[in-house]
Design goal:
Elements lengths: L8 H5 L1 E4 L3 E4 L5 H4 L3 H15 L8 H5 L16 H7 L6 H29 L9 H23 L10 E4 L11 E3 H24 L17 H15 L2 H13 L18 E2 L4 E6 L3 H9 L5 H4 L16 H4 L15 E3 L9 E3 L19 E8 H11 L5 H14 L5 H4 L5 H11 L6 H8 L3 E2 L7 E2 L31
Antiparallel strand pairs: 1-2, 3-4, 5-9, 6-9, 7-8, 10-11
Helix pairs in contact: 3-6, 3-7, 5-6, 6-7, 7-8, 7-9, 8-9, 9-10, 9-14, 10-14, 14-15, 14-17
Length: 496
């Protein structure tokens, strides 16, 4: 990854969350001052989280905004934006798609750069210098691994099929020289190594914690111990090591720190909020009402004009076959997630379906209800993923245990248990639940990629595309190769 030299590190670029509710710049202090005290380290970490919540990253594009487009959740027709249309049609070399990919790539590496400043500053200090040193360093290492993992999943071939293919740069320093590319397999090795170190440090920090403070008492909006374990489960699942994935998924489930919601809670559980029961890690963001309002209501400004009822302004007509996505009644039970796709403002027009999963019905109230312990933001890892990983991992070795995990999960969504109906659990059943559950969260694409699925485009022609590596690999920006002069590095590979 070429380092963006014009960015003067955290001295200029770092932002922080104040009381997790407002964002303020830290441009008036030096880097040495910033990391001299715990408050400065916490501000720096909060600045990284603020970066991750941007619309270019997990506030939109790294979740439903771009990464969900190839899943065909949305019936794309070009009105949603040319970049989304091209991504949804796997036209990765389209100019609009490439421009968006470059922004995502750049912002991710900027966040990695900020994280590296924190890590390197902490490594220069003694562990005894700060009470929560282990927590700070564990969080930062976990974030760095998490971001590199998502980059390798998006911008490189799948690890099981092409482990020795060119991957991405694994950047650990904020320096003026470029970081060489590593192979896909090498990136996975680095990600796993840092996640395990993150787990070790966070476990140590948690054992030494007493009453905590405002920073440590809000673990769900930090890369916490269980986020490290859940991400390890996700990484092992992606690379095909299901035994290891199951070990970490069970650690999270059996920790007792999280619980599946009741069926009655499903419909609104993540509408602009980090769910207090199921969310393992999420990103604080209090601006989602405006972001989602523009995308799903065609609102220019919520504060300035409220809701428009002009459907011609509605840019994101959701995939309309919701009955097949969320079958309900009869032998299924009462599928509560069907309410995640609702008619806009009570309209009967199918074009007006919108993502109730992400947005409140009444946008006139510009902020959702954050009561009962919920926090405004985006859910990045939730407990259901751990149940489905465990079910898949045990499907052949311990089918009865796999079924127990699966049934426990689907019951929380209002569905009847397979065991009570004498049904045999299959991988297809698990895949269907994944697609239903992670709608809007940017996770279904990765399951499609690991399985190299064929895709039927949700358009009038219903064209079928045969799955291949190029379909499931976003293009690394050309700008990444502009300053690479090492002939031994594969920096001249044609990306066009």
């Amino acid at each position: 990854m070429r380092v963006y030299v014009l960015l003067l590190g955290l001295i200029i670029g770092m932002w922080s969350c104040e009381d997790f509710l407002t964002i303020r710049p830290k441009s008036d202090i030096t880097e040495e001052d910033l990391f001299a005290k715990p408050d400065g380290v916490e501000d720096a970490l909060n600045g990284v989280y603020a970066q991750l919540g941007l619309t270019d990253l997990y506030g939109q594009n790294m979740t439903w905004g771009i990464v969900d487009m190839p899943t065909q959740y949305f019936k794309l027709n070009g009105e949603q934006g040319e970049n989304r249309y091209q991504t949804g049609r796997f036209i990765h070399d389209g100019s609009s798609a490439r421009a968006t990919y470059e922004t995502m790539w750049t912002k991710m590496y900027q966040a990695i750069g900020y994280t590296n400043n924190i890590i390197n500053a902490l490594l220069k200090k003694d562990e005894s210098s700060m009470k929560y040193y282990s927590i700070y360093l564990g969080e930062a290492l976990g974030i760095r691994a998490f971001l590199h993992f998502d980059l390798i999943r998006l911008f490189a071939p799948h690890v099981e099929r092409q482990p020795d293919a060119r991957g991405i740069p694994y950047v650990r320093q904020w320096v003026s020289k470029v970081t060489p590319f590593s192979t896909v397999q090498e990136i996975y090795v680095s990600v796993l190594k840092e996640l395990k170190e993150s787990e070790r440090l966070l476990l140590k920090g948690q054992e030494n914690m007493d009453e905590g403070n405002d920073f440590t008492n809000t673990p769900q909006i930090h890369f916490n111990l269980y986020a490290a374990q859940a991400t390890l489960a996700r990484v092992y699942w992606m690379k095909g090591d299901l035994d290891s994935a199951c070990i970490y998924a069970r650690k999270v489930i059996e920790s007792g720190k999280f619980e599946l919601v009741e069926p009655i809670e499903v419909q609104n559980m993540v509408a602009q909020v980090i769910n207090k029961k199921e969310c393992i890690w999420g990103i604080f963001n209090s601006e989602l009402s405006e972001t989602y309002g523009k995308s799903f209501y065609g609102i220019g400004s919520i504060a300035g004009g409220g809701i428009t009822t002009d459907l011609t302004l509605y840019p994101n007509a959701v995939w309309t076959d919701r009955e097949n996505l969320y079958p309900t009644g009869g032998s299924y039970g009462n599928e509560m997630r069907v309410g995640w796709i609702r008619n806009k403002l009570g309209s009967s027009d199918r074009k007006s379906y919108f993502m109730k999963l992400l947005i409140e019905d009444n946008m006139e109230a510009s902020k959702p209800d954050y009561g009962k312990g919920n926090i405004a933001g985006v859910n990045l890892i939730r407990l259901p993923e751990m149940y489905l990983i465990a079910a898949e991992a045990l499907l052949e070795k311990e089918p009865e245990v796999a079924l127990e995990y699966f049934d426990t999960f689907i019951m929380s969504r209002g569905l009847f248990k397979f065991k009570d109906q004498g049904k045999v659990l299959t991988l297809l059943d698990i895949d269907k639940e994944r697609k239903k559950e992670f709608y809007g969260e940017g996770q279904e694409f990765y399951n499609m990629k690991r399985q190299m699925r064929d895709v039927i485009l949700s358009a009038s022609t219903w064209q079928k595309l045969t799955g291949n590596e190029e379909m499931y690999t976003l293009l690394i920006p050309d700008s990444e190769f502009e300053y690479r002069y090492n002939d031994n590095e594969e920096n001249n590979i044609d990306q066009n």
